[in-house]
TrEMBL record:
PROSITE patterns, alphabetized: G_ENGB (PS51706)
GO biological process, alphabetically ordered: division septum assembly
Annotated protein name in UniProt: Probable GTP-binding protein EngB
PANTHER family: ENGB-TYPE G DOMAIN-CONTAINING PROTEIN, MSS1/TRME-RELATED GTP-BINDING PROTEIN
GO cellular component: cytosol
NCBIfam families linked: GTPase_YsxC
Length: 194
């Protein structure tokens, strides 16, 4: 797959219809501020394909990117403390409507902050993925913030946590220095080959 051939398509809220499901989709999910947009940019060798926010909770829509022959789908971040109940409900509706639309999802990349244990929201998301049998891998983000000496142990810890939910692989990544990008790309490509 040519990651250098990418473009932003559109943002979708509840009222807008999603684009036709005419190519495989790679979905990115995770807490607000975990680094979804940054990871998408790094995978695509772009600085501003996906908007990186200093203020969390900014991406309250599903953002679609076309990356060569696939779609990258950036889900709105969850777990941001300062949202109202109405906004939370809207998030639920948006996510459910996306997964219930029976689209060509070949893999979901669940982002988890490598420095912290999964939050209650993360665990809820893992349960959701497991329950709906959505194939997924975990990308541990901000790996550049870990000490070299703790990397292997951290990864192992997350593997143990994620495996019961059907996780197909754990990759330690960094959008800062490119750690894990080749490994993650290989998993994306494997999921797209029938
Ligand atoms: P929302 O769209 O609000 O849900 O956030 P997001 O998950 O898209 O996170 P985003 O990519 O906007 O990054 C949030 C913050 O984390 C930014 O300040 C990024 O610069 C920082 N960040 C993201 N990835 C990394 C990383 O690998 N290493 C470091 N050190 N910082 C990162
Ligand atoms: Mg974002």
């Amino acid at each position: 797959m040519n990651y250098n051939n990418s473009e932003f398509l559109a943002s979708y809220g509840l009222s807008r219809q999603l684009p036709d499901s005419d190519r495989p989709e790679i979905v990115f999910s995770g807490r607000s501020n975990v680094g979804k947009s940054s990871l998408i940019n790094k995978l695509c060798n772009r600085k501003k394909l996906a908007r990186v926010s200093a203020t969390p909770g900014k991406t309250a829509t599903i953002n679609f990117y076309r990356v060569d022959t696939a779609y990258f789908v950036d889900l709105p971040g969850y777990g941001y403390a300062k949202v109202s109940n109405a906004e939370r409900e809207r998030w639920d509706d948006l996510i459910n409507s996306y997964f219930e639309a029976d689209r060509a999802v070949c893999l979901l990349v669940q982002l988890l902050d490598s420095r912290h244990a999964p939050s209650a929201d993360d665990v809820q998301m893992l349960e959701y993925l497991h329950y709906h049998r959505i194939p997924f891998v975990a990308a541990l983000t901000k790996g550049d913030k870990l000490k070299k000496s703790e990397m292997a142990a951290r990864k192992e810890e997350f593997e143990k946590i994620c495996a019961p939910y059907g996780c197909q692989g754990v990759v330690l990544t960094s959008a800062e220095n490119g750690l894990g990008m080749d490994e993650l790309r290989a998993l994306l490509e494997a999921s797209m080959t029938p």
